[in-house]
Write a structure and sequence with these properties.
With 293 residues, the chain is α+β, with helices and mostly antiparallel strands. It has helices at residues 2-20, 29-32, 41-74, 90-119, 245-256, 261-268, 284-292; strands spanning 127-134, 137-142, 153-156, 164-168, 172-179, 184-188, 193-197, 208-212, 219-225, 237-243. Bound molecules: copper (II) ion.
């Protein structure tokens, strides 16, 4: 019994201690279990939580497998005599009630901590974006470009064109999400974050979050609707095009001067061009062919 108790204590301590060491997170594909690396400041906290939760789960798993293996070998049948029976062993029952509780308490503590960090907002973000979701596409409004929404620079997608949301690195970006119809969900896998887009903001619902994209993460990233919203939900994609702050300013300047999203991007991001590269519109013709064959 004494040995079991000691083992349990060591296990509990190890589990709680592990996430506190997260300053030295192993950042590679293996520990991320296929998760994207994350391109925002906020995503690093989420990634750390995920990695250490997996490690904690592995420790519990290995311990349980080891104990199972040990009992199978140690208590294999050697004769007809029954081994010592330990049913209704109160200390043992207390131990295996307390250990899971400590594990959940640890996971809960770190989850709440990370959640608070991720949902933290500055009162004065550098960039304000309004995201309007509708069946089955997206409209992005650059809220800082004009007071009146009708005058703001915007990009809207249609069935032939993937809407591109242009964002700068190294600036705090605030997203205000709203829906014209049903519940959608704004998801950029590389943010490691998604937020439901629930209609009815006028009721005081707070569909707002902030991210800061890290320097050096310029590129094209796919964005998706992550809430089943009807027939063409699966094709409700968009692209996030991350530019340096300088290129972002230039992009908005061109847009304000009357250039289309395509033309402005052709000029500021010639490497990737004006059309989406992270995803493409649904090819209706191809899809019909496939279902025919
Ligand atoms: Cu949707």
């Amino acid at each position: 019994m004494a040995r079991g108790n000691r083992l349990a204590r060591v296990a509990a301590l190890g589990l709680l201690g592990v996430p506190t060491l997260s300053g030295c997170t192993p950042d590679n594909e293996f520990w991320r279990w296929g998760w994207p690396a994350g391109i925002t400041d906020q995503s690093q906290d989420i990634k750390d939580l995920w990695i250490w939760s997996v490690i904690a789960a592995l420790i519990v798993g290995v311990l349980v497998w080891a104990l199972m293996g040990w009992s199978i070998v140690r208590h294999r049948k050697r004769g007809d005599e029954l081994p010592r029976q330990t049913a209704y062993n109160l200390p043992l029952e207390i131990v295996y009630t307390i250990i899971p509780f400590l594990i959940i308490a640890g996971l809960f503590f770190f989850t709440v901590k990370v959640q608070n960090e991720v949902q933290d907002r500055s009162d004065d973000p550098d960039v304000n974006i309004t995201v309007q979701a509708f069946k089955w596409n997206w409209e992005f409004l650059y809220a800082d470009t004009a007071e009146d929404e009708a005058d703001q620079v915007s990009t809207v997608g249609n069935s032939e064109e993937i809407p591109i949301l242009v964002l700068p690195t190294d600036r705090s970006i605030q997203f205000f999400l709203r829906s014209a119809d049903v519940i959608h969900s704004f998801w950029v896998p590389e943010f490691l974050f998604k937020l439901d887009v629930i209609p009815g903001n006028e009721n005081g619902r707070d569909n707002v979050f902030q991210v800061t994209i890290e320097e050096g993460q310029e590129g094209a990233y796919v964005g998706r609707c992550a809430e089943l919203c009807g027939t063409y939900h699966a094709y409700m994609n968009f692209e996030v095009r991350v530019l340096s702050g300088e290129d972002y300013d230039r992009y908005l300047q061109l847009r304000e001067g009357g250039a289309s999203t395509f033309d402005a991007l052709e000029e500021v991001d010639p490497e990737r061009g004006g059309a989406a590269v992270a995803t493409r519109p649904w090819d209706f013709a191809e899809d019909t062919q496939r279902s025919d064959g």
